[in-house]
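step=predict obj=Potassium transporter n=755
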Amino acid sequence: MDDDGIEDGGSSVRLTGISVGAGESRWVDGSEVDSESPPWSLDEDLSANKEDYGHSIRRRLIKKPKRLDSLDVEAMEIAGSHGHHNKDDSTWRTVALAFQTLGVVYGDMGTSPLYVFSDVFSKVNIKSDVDVLGALSLVIYTIALIPLIKYVFIVLKANDSGEGGTFALYSLICRYANVNLLPNRQPADEQISSFKLKLPTPELQRSLHIKEVLEQKSSLKTLLLLLVLMGTSMIIGDGILTPAISVMSAVSGLQGEIPGFDTNALVMVSIIILIGLFSIQRFGTSKVGLTFAPALALWFFSLGAIGIYNIFKYDTSVVRAINPVYIYIFFKNNSGKAWSALGGCVLCITGAEAMFADLGHFSVPSIQIAFTFVVFPCLLLAYMGQGAYLMNYPNSANRIFYDSVPGIAEVGVMIVSTALVTLVMLLIWQTNLFLALCFPLVFGSIELLYMSAVLSKIMEGGWLPLAFASCFLCVMYTWNYGSVLKYRSEVREKISMDFMYELGSTLGTVRIPGIGLLYTELVQGIPSILGQFLLDLPAIHSTIVFVCIKYVPVPVVPQEERFLFRRICPKDYHLFRCVARYGYKDVRKEDHHAFEQLLVQSLEKFLRKEAHELDLESSLIEVDQYDSISVKSREPTDTLEELTIPLILHDHNSEKAETTSTEGGIVELPPSSSIPGDEDPSLEYELSALWEATNSGFTYLLGHGDVRAKKNSFFIKKLVINYFYAFLRRNCRGGAAVMRVPHMNIIQVGKTYMV
């Protein structure tokens, strides 16, 4: 059973002595700790010299500190070389971003006064001022509780390095607990500068217990993924309808002013405006925000000014709506109708989720400032002004505002966010249990109440966003389900190291100059697709790199931390693994030439560092021969120092003498700069072989995998995998299209995975 819990028959490795030079036997990479090179086990029939060497290895493993995986060491070095660059948080920059948020984030919420009271009072007739005050009080506290308190002061703090939305919350949770259904997590991922992993402290057993439960139960992992996909799907479903509702609501104001402006004219004008709005999206968020920010700023200030005018002109007593008692009276007088009116009241927070979902384009302070000091007060004044007007003209509600259908998915997204933020509070923030439970009890109860009200709108058109959301949910979950099964199948069928040693350095075929980049999803082990290439091709390249494009749960991976390398098999095999790591916001813009150049540079750096490590290791072996020599006496308290000395020193340019511990004392080693790394003949040979292969060109070896359900699978699984998932794979862009690689540089072979 592998670390990821996937059964891997036939992929276990029993490693014996490996000859890597004339009469020389040693570790393949000096740092293999996973399935590619497990701990040494010597055969009983080995020769005496190999047996002695095996005992030497055991003695060194006992006396020296445990070696780190080469991927982990490399990750620690590059991660410590610089800090993660946060967004510019200067005062003027924050103010400028706050201004831009008005044109991007708050457009839907800003147009809500056009239709909120129209929908509310289409369910409840205005019999007295109490009805107006009750509805107004309901709107005021809805805006104060959900957007202001929940999002501005709580949810925005649960961002993932400045990124927001349901996937950002899921990514944040995946970093603190291994809940990703795709089992490709590595310790080296935690060394990415933007990872910022802070595990729960041992004193808080609750956080540790939650983490263990999430990691051990696959059903909870699936439930969490479904919750995230559901929230994302509802955002998309809501986003399909919200722009149309907002534009039509604004244009509907012309119906009472222009004679003959009927419904057909309303629809045509709205379509023209929508086409214009979507056509400028390609210019980017920054330009769109700067374009619409002045108009939305004028809109919000106009709402506030008109509200103040209406309050003083019609009825200043409308401020009594601040008293929440009027909400109770509103429900008492109207009972079931008041509950139905909640479906219209929830429209006042349309677009509130955008405050968190669009966080990646702005910053937390900018969104907080814009809502707290502009949007919130202007909306309150606008609704109070409308309330004052309705108290004098109660029959004008349906005539003035457009009666719209509430886009239901909005409330569903809020419920998902509440659940995920609660998990973040318990698992990551380690909030007091009482306070953490108060969050879902307060806000979850309010949102469930609104959900129960808007469900009555399903037959009036509310089914449409739910239908969109359901379709997107099915697509995303089917893709994830099929990908996980395919990955597990690859793990089960990966080639054993014993078989690779039997093939020898020629891999059982002819090796020709060049670099073959064999793409695989495996982060460990040798993919079975290599065997297919060896069977189908008359020759294979002199240098083969298994490239794994891996997406880690961080927004962005710095370019200098992109590649991690390790060696597979002895040196004369010229086999390497490259893990190319990308964040979920990284866009693979580099063309294949830039990718190849960066890969070769990283591989050369790895080879030089490996040579330095082995030279340092040789120095430590020589130190073992002088255990009886004591240069400096050691105190009894120093006995544990030996376990903390790294085998790879990060300061390679230091001219100071390096020291290491022995049982007798501290022995000085030569400065690292004097270690003849470049003069090592084996390094020179490997570098020359790498340059020769580079000059011969790159070939992309891609496997076209066909995933099929086993014959004894359930009918539903066969339907999903053989038809739905297969349809998605056929109609998604392949790896060649994503990498923009010329077809003449690509070799593809087919393989069927039975899942």
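step=describe
The chain has two domains: 89-460, 489-614+687-754.
step=end
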